[in-house]
Amino acid sequence: MAGKTVTNGAARCGLNGAALDRPQQDKTGMGRVDLIGAGPGDPELLTLRALRLLQQADVVVHDRLVSAEVMACVPAHVRRIPVGKAAGFHPVPQEQINALLVELARSGLTVARLKGGDPTIFGRGGEEFEAVTHAGIPCDYIPGITAAQGAAASARFPLTHRGLATGLRHVTGHRARDAALDLDWASLADPQTTLAVYMGAANVAEIARELIRHGMPSDLPALAVSQASTPQEKRLLATLQDIAAALARKPLPTPVLFIIGHVAAMADDCDLPHESYRPEWRLVAHG
Ligand SMILES: C[S@@+](CC[C@H](N)C(=O)[O-])C[C@H]1O[C@@H](n2cnc3c(N)ncnc32)[C@H](O)[C@@H]1O
Questions:
Q1: Residues tagged active-site
Q2: Tens digits of per-residue pLDDT, 151-193?
Q3: DSSP the chain
Q4: Less Cβ around it within 10 Å: N or C end of the chain?
Q5: Which domains does the chain have, with CATH numbers?
Q6: Nearest CA, atom 27, ligand 1
Q7: Tens of pLDDT along 233-267?
Q8: Residues having CB within 6 Å of any atom of ligand 1
């Protein structure tokens, strides 16, 4: 692509200018849509820009994963439209959500489309962006803290770490309409790359089995984090080989994310299944 200089709206306004930078209706009376990351649950993990846009919106269209604490940041007079999805149960089909966003913006409203975590990571944010921009409606992404970052921060461990993890991959452990998982297992089975597995709770046994079959060490630490960054957060640390059985014995409430890799051994305060935990991991992790 030819070089092009772009001035970003967020860069334009410093914190002081932020309150003045209200999204404007254009001259045709068209509204706009912002695809806003709500983060994993803790409202303090919202960006300043997300918070400002929530406070300036006419209507908030929100997912099920957006926490009550984040929704409490939306002023009482702002209309709320829940379009929540749960695994295998989609009360509002994606096409209807796209159409709703277009319709609301066409009627002149400033729409905050609030999605759990980051809107560009496993949130179908790209489809909503396409639908809205193809309708000629202004639209921006507002990044959010993704669940893996929230989980790592609250358990106080790094996602990469010298000597333990030279990279990080975010993968889905679920396919649409429960189709078979067709991940590139050989490329995922790298013990030097931290693997953050989203939507993997129902398939964790298969995920662990395939990773081990493709060369991942069976005793690699695997951490399940439920409701990361909320007061209800729970963690379970096991080996890759044992994580599915440990979860079957002690199921965790959704949403659940898996962090697989050496860095997971550095997580704080895990509920450790005795037969899986190896204290030497912690020594390795901290050098
Ligand atoms: C449809 S994906 C959305 C991911 C989101 N866009 C993000 O960036 O975090 C939903 C999955 O994200 C993970 N997830 C989202 N919020 C979470 C949280 N607070 N704690 C643990 N996992 C979470 C779970 O794996 C859940 O099944």
A1: 63, 85, 199
A2: 999 999 999 999 899 999 999 998 776 677 889 999 999 999 9
A3: --------HHHH--HHHHTT-PPPP-TT---EEEEEE-BSS-GGGS-HHHHHHHHH-SEEEE-TTS-HHHHTTS-TTSEEEE---BTTB-SS-HHHHHHHHHHHHHTT-EEEEEESB-TTSSS-HHHHHHHHHHTT--EEEE----HHHHHHHHTT--SSBTTTBSEEEEEES--GGGPPP---HHHH--TTEEEEEES-GGGHHHHHHHHHHTT--TTSEEEEEESTTSTT-EEEEEETTTHHHHHHHS--PSSEEEEESGGGGG-SS-B--TTT--HHHHHHHT-
A4: N
A5: 15-145 (3.40.1010.10), 148-285 (3.30.950.10)
A6: 199
A7: 999 999 999 999 999 999 999 999 999 999 999 99
A8: 40-41, 65, 115-118, 121-123, 146-147, 150-151, 198-199, 225, 227-229, 255-257
